């Protein structure tokens, strides 16, 4: 792999960029692999990368139905944070955040991780109690998260309206300074390039139509629109389509797929320095490097695979944004889109062995999957390689739905991003 | 925004009047206290989450207040049928996928 | 300054002028001008700078597709709008217009250095560098990139304008009022159907506004269009909305429109909204959205003065403006000839028509040549010159190296026409590729809609009119004629784009994406059109690829050696053109953003000086400060007074559900963990509700009024979901039960009177009831009258004192409140709010669901195991409670905490550990759920969820804070009146 650097860019600039090679190759599939990952998003590509890098398993294929990074990886609002409440959540999101901090260097691909701070607004006593519970838990766990007064919040994010006369006045905020954003496409491409370099096959435009099982019920490979491909192990990392893929192995999972919408404004000169979220009024917003205000809207209420949703979801979100930031009322929405989130009953992810031998699943990241990408990929690779969960992901198994040991992040936050 | 036919009001109304209420025809086990942990997990948590034709429940919460069932294509979001609660799982209406019909039946 | 206004051309009235400033300079326009036509009339082409290289840019189009001329248009300081298309915004008198993305001036922009550095800034270069040192991306590189990027400057002040919202239904919605849309609308309207006809421009006519060679029904196309408009406007079943954009096509024919109401007016009536959102549910949608002309992709095709041929025609034929004085044309399509012909006839010099095709349409060529225009077929423009305005074009015969420089001050381009399938595609219709004409056309419809005219690929005028008439559902007699039949068109890089990788041949103007960028993306392995788009940002600018998408696709396909449909097409997303947030939110702001719920006593509470807090949607009285009191002092006084005398509290927000019917008790048995059969009429019981999972969902006191009637109370926030939950079970699981549920939350005003003198306060006001503890003990309920008002009186307590909750119909609430307060005040009682309520209940260890519990707490965890019936064979939650994790030992349980320092009040949300010296990550036992200063006890108290808490009684635990560690002893949850005698007093 040709190393990326400022020198390489300069050299190529002198010769019209004719020397760049393909970032990843698109080989013909082999007849079988040690591991097949179904789903070429950030989680799947990352898992393949870490299988190769950390576990020495390089006979790996990532099978993607469409174009890699085309699912939720390329559709989210790129927020990164780790200030979750429960230990199980803190474990995995903090693991992820630490990987984010060095990801560009590890992959030799600028994923533009930008710790510009994620600020969550508190509007009432209940919010305050909940945020302080988070802040204290995070601090004792070694995760940064601090309480700001309304004035401090305004200083951190000048467009914020902190007047007492607002419909939902702000009584403080929780700030994770290490939280921020990253460039979503770069994550998929960076992992793809690094995985491809280590021998992983990235196979796009290939739809899995079945999972073949052996005499003992174990997986033996996948049926695709390009024929059968054998596999000793299969990892499913198909986000919104997890239920569909798992059904091919007769495994039911506790998921509901919902459309989640987002929108961006026309590009503006820098006006918004951080990420702001409000659970009470249901809004979150940041500004991209291109200058667009990136706004996450809510999920549509019904289960759907349509990647579209209702206008009322968008308008409701903008109601909230303009309530928090009245100066944005003349700003214009440039593009809206939708993704399909896979939501669990406790709004925490699933990373687990399954009743089917050698079939592993990574799903249920709901609206929080992007920030988890490196951590989830890293621990999913461990799970596939070792056949049992890593210490940091032990709470995420499917068994919790039998025992009742849920990780109820839903109870703690209405909008879990 | 969806347009939903309430089988009780017999009218097409905007989605704003309705609340989605999960997959349909998941009956609460009769002797629920006797079932296994696995069976409880299956009943309470596991879902088909079908891509394609799905049976689901809605409530006309800002209307007549009734729960009812629907058959909807979760890829196109088109409703194929809505019918009253208490009726058994209805078959997918023929090949006509655009129109919305109503099955009358005993209210629950 | 030379005026480029052509006498006798165009349709504007010369007498009606407007003045505006552009970058501080005053210009005169005619009423009806767009900013673009007005500036062009003054010879100004330079209107903006590109996003990345800051190249000088001029107006490119005459419509919504404009990528270059984005301006900042202001009425005053607060009414300033960035990123306005000069080709769309109508001039109004007094407009203050400025260029964007340049410093210090539009003519001299420092950042244009980027253009020189552009070899470094190839597509996706930022993914390959700026990685060292690690912190430098966010601290150094990113801020520089952010400052350079962006376009307009966001408003700094709150928008003083207001916006409106309307919902509408119609039989037929027609998008676009060109020849096809007008015909379809008329056809539909004549059948009696209700019709909404929408067009984004100020005037109807669409392409007829510039295409003066068309006649319909014997009239000029423009006159015919205005005639149809008059006819439609007179029909009661038709609504015509001009200056209105169909921006979004949503599920089930739900259509979003934005109507620009005042932005063209010099002094709009303050009562008018600036813009109006229309949300239309249409039975049928006719898409008559036309087509957009494409530019040609060749070297330096972006200089000011280079624009679309149809735009030049629009500026001439509608606005009466010539876009130059010596104009060249570079085309691959016949339509550009008509622009040259019209300009020539208007007296403008045409330097040459350069047609990259060997065989253009004979008719247009001979017509041009007959006017003396030089036509070069099989030639291409391979370069242009000119810094802030094009000065020449370099022309060469295809595949030849000989070239010739021709001086021009404007260059018109046409690569042919792209059908506007945006809305069709938004509706999730499936497109097909028309290989012959190199375009995507509607194929399979997902909604009840139909495309007609140019957006459907119907080029022939009479075919278009027939198709449109049929689509309307009726039949209009209409036929037309046009001077020329157009042929030709190309997509992808033209001859002059060069095969090499140094030429800047722009595909996406705003984002500075060139043909070589697309090729680079493919070379780097971006083989899906979505990857190419994202890697190069082609089509992601504010015009959303209206001009660039097809070119980008064709170039990619060529490099990949694939057919265009194999490479794919990016998805079209709403909105068609950007929509103001203010319009989308319309009335939902301030108080209407989320209307506050106020109790029937709100006015009384306000008069009494209450401070309020938000609890869900409710405004609740928080505390009642007296002169000089802060919150702490007020709450201390209220707490003391309530226990010493009495306190009066507005409890109206409590959720209330009337459960009625012969099976009411049976139903409650299923819905609550407690048993209800044995509750006698006239008695109350505290109930706990779980869902099937066994976790506490809600709680409240339930009073039985009769065998078949219960008055159920819920938490303030829980009322709607508890009712929904109950209805769900009643409709679907227990439909045979004869029970009816009614929400009565807002039916009753609830006045809680608590304290030793509670009875004395209300006794004289209550009629028909013996209030003595013997006759009406704690946990009783009765119907009676209070001051003659029918009432439900509860003897319940959330304070541990003697307590009554007086329920009267909401309309009587205020007068009963006043009467009770009059007596209470005389006896030395106080009013208290939610804060005192919280303290008093915590002193007694009463929990608040949602504060002391979250979604992981069982009744037993909360210390309410006794409320779970052991006898019932079924209730919702019975099985969930028996799951392994809910039965295990060591679960977190609610207990009391007493700090070692009695003056120390713990922080709610503080985390509890056993070993304060454990290194991070520490093992957390639980957290503080409630913590208060108790004035009555003279010390702090707290409630906490602690692992194995009840087994830790008397043990010391620690709450490490940021700056100190607080020690506390685990205790019983009842801190005050442990024997509980006061409640019965």
Can you put this structure into words, describing what you see?
Chain A is α/β, with parallel strands linked by helices and 417 residues long. Chain A has 2 domains: 25-109 and 183-255 and 346-412, FAD/NAD(P)-binding domain (3-Layer(bba) Sandwich), CATH 3.50.50; 118-177 and 257-343, D-Amino Acid Oxidase, Chain A, domain 2 (2-Layer Sandwich), CATH 3.30.9. Chain A has helices spanning 6-14, 42-55, 87-107, 125-141, 150-156, 184-197, 242-247, 311-324, 369-386, 400-403, 409-412; strands at 32-38, 60-63, 79-80, 118-122, 146-148, 172-176, 180-181, 201-203, 208-213, 219-224, 227-236, 256-265, 275-278, 283-287, 293-299, 332-343, 350-353, 359-363. In chain A, helix 2 (42-55) links the parallel strand 1 and strand 2 (60-63). The radius of gyration of chain A is 21 Å and the shape is globular. The two termini of chain A are 35 Å apart. The relative contact order of chain A is 0.19. With 108 residues, chain B is mainly beta. Chain B has one domain (3-103): 2-Layer Sandwich (Folate-binding fold), CATH 3.30.2270.10. Chain B contains 1 helix and 7 strands, in the order E-E-E-H-E-E-E-E. Chain B has one helix at residues 37-44; strands at 3-6, 11-14, 19-23, 53-59, 67-73, 79-84, 101-103. In chain B, the strands form 2 sheets. A 5-stranded mixed beta sheet of chain B has the order 3-4-5-6-7, with no helix packed on it. A two-stranded antiparallel sheet of chain B has the order 1-2. The model of chain B is unreliable at 96-108 (pLDDT under 50). Chain C has 985 residues and is of the alpha+beta class. Chain C has 6 domains: 17-116, Ubiquitin-like (UB roll) (Roll), CATH 3.10.20.440; 162-292 and 417-489, 3-Layer(bba) Sandwich (FAD/NAD(P)-binding domain); 295-415, FAD/NAD(P)-binding domain, CATH 3.50.50; 491-589, no CATH class; 652-752 and 766-819, Gyrase A, domain 2; 875-984, Elongation Factor Tu (Ef-tu), domain 3, CATH 2.40.30. Helix content of chain C is 21%, strand content 28%. Chain C contains 23 helices and 52 strands. In chain C, helix 8 links the parallel strand 19 (349-355) and strand 20 (375-377). In chain C, helix 6 (309-317) runs parallel beside helix 7 and helix 11 (515-523) crosses helix 12. The termini of chain C are far apart. Classes of the chains: A alpha/beta (417), B mainly beta (108), C alpha+beta (985). Chain C: Belongs to the GcvT family. Chain C: Pfam families: Fer2_4, GCV_T, GCV_T_C, Pyr_redox_2, SO_alpha_A3.
């Amino acid at each position: 792999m040709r190393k990326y650097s400022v020198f390489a860019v300069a050299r190529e600039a002198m010769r019209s960029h004719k020397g760049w090679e393909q970032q990843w190759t698109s080989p013909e599939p082999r007849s079988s692999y040690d591991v097949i990952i179904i789903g070429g998003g950030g989680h799947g590509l990352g898992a393949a990368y870490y299988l190769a890098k950390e576990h020495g398993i390089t006979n790996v294929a990532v099978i993607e139905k469409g174009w890699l990074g085309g699912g939720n990886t390329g559709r989210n609002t790129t927020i990164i944070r780790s200030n979750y409440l429960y230990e199980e959540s803190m474990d995995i999101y903090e693991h992820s955040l630490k990987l984010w901090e060095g990801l560009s260097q590890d992959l030799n691909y600028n994923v533009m991780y930008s710790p510009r701070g994620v600020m969550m607004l508190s509007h009432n006593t209940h919010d305050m109690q909940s945020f302080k519970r988070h802040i204290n838990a995070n601090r004792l766990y070694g995760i940064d998260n601090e309480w700001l007064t309304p004035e401090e919040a305004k200083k951190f994010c000048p467009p914020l309206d902190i007047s007492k006369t607002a419909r939902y006045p702000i009584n403080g905020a929780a700030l994770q300074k290490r939280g921020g954003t990253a460039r979503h496409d770069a994550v998929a491409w960076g992992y793809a390039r690094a995985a491809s370099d280590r021998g992983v096959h990235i196979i796009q435009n290939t739809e899995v139509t079945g999972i073949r099982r052996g005499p003992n019920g174990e997986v033996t490979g996948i049926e695709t629109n390009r024929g059968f491909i054998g596999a000793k192990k299969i990892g499913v990392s198909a986000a919104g389509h997890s239920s569909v893929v798992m059904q091919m192995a007769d495994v039911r999972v506790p998921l509901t797929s919902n459309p989640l919408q987002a929108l961006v404004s026309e590009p503006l000169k820098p006006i918004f320095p951080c990420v702001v979220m409000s659970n009470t009024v249901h809004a979150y917003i940041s500004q991209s490097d291109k200058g667009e205000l990136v706004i996450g809207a809510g999920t549509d209420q019904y289960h759907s695979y349509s990647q579209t949703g209702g206008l009322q979801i968008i308008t409701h979100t903008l109601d909230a944004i303009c309530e928090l930031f009245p100066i944005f009322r003349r700003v214009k929405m440039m593009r809206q889109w939708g993704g399909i989130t896979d939501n669990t009953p406790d709004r925490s992810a699933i990373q687990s062995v399954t009743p089917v031998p050698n079939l592993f699943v990574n799903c249920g990241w709901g609206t929080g999957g992007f920030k988890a990408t490196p951590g989830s990929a890293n621990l999913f690779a461990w799970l596939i390689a070792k056949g049992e969960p890593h210490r940091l992901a032990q709470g995420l198994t499917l068994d919790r739905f039998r025992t009742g040991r849920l990780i109820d992040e839903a109870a703690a936050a209405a909008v879990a991003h | 925004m969806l347009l939903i036919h309430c089988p009780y009001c017999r009218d097409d109304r905007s989605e704003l009047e309705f609340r989605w209420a999960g997959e349909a025809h998941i009956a609460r086990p009769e002797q629920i206290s006797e079932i296994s942990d696995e069976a409880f997990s299956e009943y309470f948590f596991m879902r088909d989450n079908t891509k394609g034709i799905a049976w689901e429940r809605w409530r006309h919460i800002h209307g007549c207040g009734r729960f009812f069932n629907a058959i909807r294509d979760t890829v196109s979001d088109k409703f194929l049928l809505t019918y009253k609660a208490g009726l058994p799982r209805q078959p997918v209406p023929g090949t006509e996928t655009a129109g919305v019909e109503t099955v009358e039946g005993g209210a629950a | 300054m030379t005026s480029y206004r052509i006498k006798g051309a165009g349709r504007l009235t010369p007498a009606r002028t407007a003045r505006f400033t552009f970058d501080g300079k005053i210009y005169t326009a005619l009423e009806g001008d767009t900013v673009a036509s007005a500036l062009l009339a003054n010879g100004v082409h330079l209107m903006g700078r590109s996003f990345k290289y800051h190249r000088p840019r001029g107006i490119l189009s005459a419509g919504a597709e404009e990528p270059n001329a984005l301006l900042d248009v202001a009425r005053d300081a607060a009414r300033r709008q960035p990123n306005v298309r000069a080709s769309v915004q109508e001039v109004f008198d007094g407009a203050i217009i400025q260029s964007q993305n340049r410093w210090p001036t539009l003519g001299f922009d420092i950042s244009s250095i980027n253009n020189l550095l552009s070899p470094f800034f190839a597509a996706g270069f930022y993914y390959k560098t700026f990685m060292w040192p690690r912190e430098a991306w966010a601290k150094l590189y990113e801020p520089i990139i952010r400052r350079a990027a962006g376009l307009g400057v966001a408003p700094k002040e709150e928008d003083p304008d207001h916006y409106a919202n309307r919902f509408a239904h119609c039989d037929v919605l027609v998008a676009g009022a060109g020849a096809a849309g007008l015909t379809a609308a008329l056809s539909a309207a004549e059948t009696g159907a209700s019709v909404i006809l929408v067009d984004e421009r100020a005037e109807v006519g669409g392409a007829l506004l510039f295409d003066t060679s068309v006649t319909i029904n014997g009239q000029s196309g423009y006159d015919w269009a205005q005639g149809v408009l008059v006819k439609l406007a007179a029909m009661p079943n038709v609504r015509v909305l001009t200056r209105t954009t169909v921006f979004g096509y949503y599920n089930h024919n739900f259509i979003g429109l934005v109507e620009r109401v005042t932005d063209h007016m010099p002094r709009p009536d303050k009562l008018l909204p600036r813009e109006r959102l229309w949300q239309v549910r249409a039975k049928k949608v006719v898409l008559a959205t036309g087509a957009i002309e494409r530019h040609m992709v060749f070297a330096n095709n972006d200089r000011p003065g280079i624009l679309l041929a149809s735009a030049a025609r629009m500026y001439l034929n509608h606005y009466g403006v010539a876009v130059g004085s010596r104009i060249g044309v570079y085309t691959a399509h016949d339509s550009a000839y008509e622009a040259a012909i019209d300009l020539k006839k208007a007296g403008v010099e045409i330097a040459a028509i350069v047609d990259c095709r060997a065989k253009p349409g004979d008719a247009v060529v001979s017509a041009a040549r007959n006017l003396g225009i030089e036509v070069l077929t099989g030639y291409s423009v391979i370069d242009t010159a000119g810094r802030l305005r094009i000065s020449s074009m370099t022309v060469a015969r295809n595949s030849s190296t000989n070239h010739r420089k021709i001086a021009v001050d404007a260059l018109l381009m046409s690569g042919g026409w792209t059908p506007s399938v945006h809305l069709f595609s938004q509706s999730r219709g499936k497109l097909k590729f028309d290989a012959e004409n190199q375009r995507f056309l509607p194929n399979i419809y997902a909604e009840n809609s139909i495309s007609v005219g140019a957006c459907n690929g119907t080029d022939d005028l009479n075919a278009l009119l027939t198709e449109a008439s049929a689509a309307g559902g009726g039949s209009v007699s209409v036929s037309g004629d046009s001077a020329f039949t157009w042929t030709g068109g190309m997509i992808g890089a033209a001859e002059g784009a060069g095969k090499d990788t140094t030429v800047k041949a722009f595909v996406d103007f705003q984002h500075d994406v060139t043909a070589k960028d697309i090729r680079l993306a493919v070379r780097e392995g971006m083989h899906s059109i979505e990857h190419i788009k994202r890697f190069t940002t082609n089509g992601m600018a504010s015009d959303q690829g209206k001009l660039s998408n097809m070119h980008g696709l064709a170039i990619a396909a060529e490099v990949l050696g694939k057919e265009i449909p194999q490479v794919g097409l990016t998805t079209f997303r709403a909105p068609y053109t950007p929509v103001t947030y203010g319009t989308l939110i319309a009335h939902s702001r301030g108080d209407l953003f989320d209307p506050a719920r106020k109790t029937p006593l709100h006015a009384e509470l306000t008069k009494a000086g209450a401070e309020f807090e938000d609890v869900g949607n409710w405004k609740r009285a928080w505390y009642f400060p007296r002169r000089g009191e802060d919150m702490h002092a007020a709450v201390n006084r209220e707490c003391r007074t309530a226990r010493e005398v009495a306190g009066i509290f507005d409890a109206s927000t409590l959720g209330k559900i009337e459960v009625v019917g012969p099976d009411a008790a049976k139903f409650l048995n299923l819905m609550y963990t407690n048993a209800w059969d044995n509750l006698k009429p006239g008695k109350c019981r505290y109930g706990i509700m779980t869902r099937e999972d066994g976790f506490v969902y809600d709680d409240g006191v339930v009073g039985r009024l009769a065998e078949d009637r219960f008055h159920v109370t819920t938490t303030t926030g829980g009322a709607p979901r508890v009712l929904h939950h109950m209805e769900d079970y009643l409709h679907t699981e227990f439909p045979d039960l004869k029970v009816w549920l009614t929400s009565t939350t807002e039916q009753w005003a609830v006045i809680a009177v608590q304290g030793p003198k509670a009875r004395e306060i209300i006794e004289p006001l209550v009629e028909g009831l013996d209030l003595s503890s013997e006759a009406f003990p704690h946990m009783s309920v009765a119907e009676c009258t209070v001051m003659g008002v029918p009432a439900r009186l509860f003897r319940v307590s959330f304070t541990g004192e003697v307590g009554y909750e007086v329920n009267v119909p909401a309309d009587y609430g205020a007068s009963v409140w006043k009467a009770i307060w009059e007596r209470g005040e005389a006896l030395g009682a106080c009013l208290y709010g939610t804060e005192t309520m919280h303290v008093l209940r915590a002193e007694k260890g009463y929990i608040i669901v949602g504060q002391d519990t979250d979604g992981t707490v069982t009744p037993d965890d909360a210390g309410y195991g006794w409320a779970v019936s052991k006898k019932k064979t079924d209730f919702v939650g019975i099985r969930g409670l028996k799951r392994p994790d809910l039965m295990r030992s060591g679960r977190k349980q609610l207990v009391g905490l007493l700090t070692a320092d009695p003056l120390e009040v713990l922080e709610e949300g503080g985390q509890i550990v056993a070993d304060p010296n454990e290194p991070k990550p520490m093992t957390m036992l639980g957290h503080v759920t409630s913590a208060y200063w108790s004035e009555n006890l003279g010390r702090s108290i707290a409630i906490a969820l602690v692992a194995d808490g009840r087994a830790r009684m008397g043990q010391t635990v620690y709450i490490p804070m940021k700056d100190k560690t607080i020690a506390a002893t685990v205790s019983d949850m009842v801190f005050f009146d442990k024997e509980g005698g006061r409640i019965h007093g």
